[in-house]
Amino acid sequence: MSCGRLHVKIKRVCARKRSRNVFKTHLIPVRKQGRGGGREAGSTPCLLSRRSSTTMAEHRAVEVPRGSVGWTCIYSTSYSMETRQKQYCSDSEDLFGEYDSILEDTSILAKLEEAEQHERLRSENLQSFRTLQPPGDPMSQSPKGPLTDSVFHELEDKVFEDLPPSQLQFQEQIQDQAKKSKMQVQNKTSTPSHTEAAGETNSEDGSRKHSKARRSVADLLKKTMLGNAATPVGVSRTALLKEAVISEEISVAMQAMENISAETPDLGPFFGLPSKVKELMHKLRGIQKLYDWQEACLNLECVQQRRNLIYSLPTSGGKTLVAEILILRELLCRRKDCLFILPYISLVQEKVRGLATFGLELDFMVEEYAGSKGKFPPVKRRNKRSLYIATIEKAHSLVNSLIESSRLNHLGLLVVDELHMLGDGSRGAVIEMTLAKVRYMSKATQIIGMSATLGNIKDLQMFLGAENYTNDFRPVQLKEYVKLNDTIYEVDPKEENCFRFSRMLNYKYSSSMQKIDPDHIIALVTEVIPLHSCLVFCPTKKNCENVAGMICKYLKEDFLQHREAEKAVLLQELKASGNGSMCPVLRRTVPYGVAYHHSGLTAEERKLVEEAYSRGVLCLLACTSTLAAGINLPARRVILRSPYVATEFLKRSQYKQMVGRAGRAGIDTIGESILILQEKDRSMAKELVCAPMESCYSNLMQDDERGILSLILSLIGLNISSSLQQVEQFLHRTLLFVQQQQLCVERSLWDTVQRCVATLQEKELITITATHSPSLQVTRLGRAAYKGSVDLSYCSVLYKDLLKGLEGLQLSSHLHLVYLVTPYDLVPQCNPDWMVYFRQFTLLSASEQKMFAAVGVPESFVARKAAGQTVKKSVDLVAVKRMYLALVLFSLLRDTDVWAVADRFQLTRGFVQTLLSSASAFCCCVLHFTEELEELWPFKALLLELTHRLSYCVKAELIPLMEVAGVLEFRAKQLYNAGYRTLSHLANADPAVLCRTLEHLYQKQANLMVASAKMLLNEKAAALQEEVDELLTLPADLPPQQLL
Q1: N or C terminus: which one in the chain shows less Cβ crowding within 10 Å?
Q2: Strands 411-416 and 337-341
Q3: What CA–CA distance (Å, rounded) separates 319 from 329?
Q4: Neighbours of 468 (CB within 10 A)
Q5: How far is it, in rounded angstroms, from Cα 39 to Cα 25?
Q6: Residue 673: beta bridge partners?
């Protein structure tokens, strides 16, 4: 038909224009797309089905043929639109891309009338021809119907043939909906079918004419377009099309990953990921282009083939971004869960906040496993993948639960940050156990390790079966210096003495200043602050506070004027976070832009100080070495006050981690580190700065073989090993086996296994059946120990304390329960103030005082110690000190004020908060411990509530808000007072409104907070939905339902 090749010109009459830079939709004509739309000139435009106003009485579908306009319009035959033309010309959304209206372009209407006339004549000719045919001739059957059917429907099957699969499916769904809508309307209005209409026309001898049965197509089309313009848009077409494009790109990436080769290193628009990921990286992180080493690493053959990899770079080299891209590829393309292991709770929370927006945009869950948070086993999700972000200890428990529930194969990727911590005491042993179990039980799980440069990286490669990628890239050049007396030397390994003269320190000191600051710290820091930032690493916490105070004492008053208003705000926030109390040192130093940072600060104080330093409000931090291993706070200059941490000389890895903070990418062109030395430390410092990196060794055998004991117990409990031979076979997958020549000198690995199994049997944690082939089985106590992640050295003591507690459990208050979950490992750090101890005892109720004697702390002992008298009667000092810590926790639960409790018990506020976080984590462990022992059943309900209270230690109404990662008490109070009282309130808040409502809240902070709340809300909703689906799913083991 000729009208199928009709060319239509559309003229813009609407004054308001849409930006030309928006996403181009399928509404742009083919020839226009060929020039600028990014498509092939001959590609087929998509159809748009658009819902008209609900007041329309009758809907009919009119399709303009392919090659003319190219959209489907749904119109009404009973709704008058002429009187509303002007109103609908300026709708809120442009329906036609770059073209707005055809109301004043008569050419299209004329051409449609011409096509209508042509069709009408053809129909009349067919009618005349039919009267000449015999009754049984198929040609005498009724024609296809009026113009709306014959002109348009004949092209219906051809219009989608050139679309990509994702958009084809999308358009087919729309077309099906339009057809169903049309059929429903026809049924409601009793519209006759084509056959019935034709029969009626024959029976009435042509009394009805097509021109009377319908209105002009031109009029109908015009009214329909106006109606469509007035119809509100439920879902943005651009958003739907972008979603279709993302789906298409992921599909392409998945196919490419299956057929990968070395010749095609780039799998997709952004390393095998949809282009939306690249857009999010730019929008949220400001990353436009990856470093060369990052691209090279992502294109490694071992990465593309999903083999294990260890990559090593200096601090601040951008290692984490590579891991995040690999995680996103696993989640989106392979549809597998991922586990990201980080060393500290603060890092876990920071990463959860940072990736929550990615999860919301790309439809995956981000789950936090830190402290008391995390569910074991994790929620099993049918439709979404999960990214578990966990601390070292929580990751081990998570892997154990996945093995026990036979779901480890769902874990596609495991990423370990700071892999060199394998050599870090008991925590290193936990990392080794986790990785060994994953390697042994799941061949399909890829392991990626990020590490500092190590001297024995090949040992780690053998342990993980991994390849290694190493690069010395730093985004900012680092220059290392040492200071001896008044002279500064540059570190140069090529020099004979490792040091090359650089310059003399040019700063005039008075005699009094020389006595107070003999190391010239003030001279070194004033060379860079306040315009640039500086970190001063100190050997002890007390030294941090002293150095910060000393520096401010000699700074000029000009420092007070630098960003004065913002520093005043910071002081207000610090005071509010302490409920009116404030550290006197910070009150004196913050006005100068100086603060200290160590574990003695509360979590709120640390967060405020870190954010202020990141924004440049604070220009100098005096800190301990823990800051270098935690959150990334770079500086122009890093000063090491001493080559010691407490009384121990620095390790090479610690030194590198500290000096690695020098140089801020995108801000500085160079970073400097200065190590202050005394003459007596010169030779040791030479080895420190010039020696090769230390080696990393297994810690399974350390601390009386605690690590390997825990490992063997869990292997037996998880049914991984049931004999000595199987245990030994598993140990061949550990780092200990790789390094057995260095570590198993006194005793072979086989002898060690036999010794450990005997020890576990002696502790009644396992049993050995006396058969021809001895079988190992875990006892109930042993199962409780490994599922609760309880240290085996405390396992028996904990069990006895819980059993003893049940005999006379005091529930008139929380004190008895709090005592039972007070961590054993903090007892050695406790030195009670006996007067405070006795005073707090006298304030207790009679039932609480009675409980003291029940746990082995008699009143007479505390009274005599408070009076300074000697005590002849032997008393369990562990129980006495543990009760003192329990009193501290009990006071926190009542007052929820860290400052007041710390002052009451003469403790630092940092120690009080550390005690609280340790107690909440241990309470969670004890809860899982009691769940495996039937005789301890009363504790299941009691400890569940106590864990919740210890985790947050705030008023009950603030807990829902503090569940959001990064929201602390001070911010939760602000939100609650502003009306955001539930998780749903916060998740649905507008970040811009939050910034205006809450004092001192920045846009970036608001965005991260709302994204984290949305993710947590989605996680809870999805967990409930999964529970519902599981309840309604037909059981797989349902007996046959046959009628008798």
Answers
A1: C
A2: parallel
A3: 16
A4: 17
A5: 11
A6: 480, 638
